[in-house]
Sequence to fold (275 residues):
Amino acid sequence: MKPAPFDLVTANDMSEALEALHQGGTEARVIAGGQSLVPMLNMRLARPATLVDITRIPELSRIEAKSDRITIGAAVRQSTLERWPELADRLPLVHAALPWVAHTQVRNRGTICGSVAHADPSAELPLCLIALGGTVTLRRRRKTRAVAARDFFQGMMSTDLAPGEMITSVTFPAHQTGTGYAFREVARRHGDFAIVACAAIARPDGTATLSVGGVADTPRTLDLPADAQGLDERLNEFAWHLQARDDLHATARYRRDLVRKLGRATLKEALSCRD
Fold:
């Protein structure tokens, strides 16, 4: 099957892109890497009247590193971030997660922000953004706003993105001294969407968080106090709270078991990685 007819606008600057989105309203979509959108177009699960190509806008292809945060533009490809020399030091959790994102060919085209916009609950990058407490910057013709990742993802492939609005960047808090990070995933094959993915952060004060993707409609986070007692009981309660469902890839029981076992292993690794 091929896509339904659409108009393509190749924007050379932000004002041109935002005007096209404003004119298109609910019938306009942004395209950059197209690794999520194009298959949906081919299957006619998405039928936009207008596609706005943002890959020629220079400001959207930048990685901006500041002392406490890293901002990644909407046209930055996953492979570009993967090859960024500072990635392991500044964003160790994302560094650990990126090799699990699909395959090399997909990462060569797909963008960081595209994965965030698609909001697949099994995707690794939205999980990392929520785990780290990142933000999504949204812009329309006359307004810019920043939304916390935990509020941006509203359900399976559902976000806070409004008609006429686009993601211009995502911001991850940078690595903090004394903090450990770990990422683990189980999938049917490497490169497939996760059956369960876990991202753990262990802080210098002894507190920790475990974020889990692939189970609920959005990634969910468990906060653990310092010297938490009864970790197995907490993980068991969390696994049931996620309300896993049977599907073609795994049973709900298997997913709950992975949350318990993979979650514990990921937390243990994060604790051992504190510098």
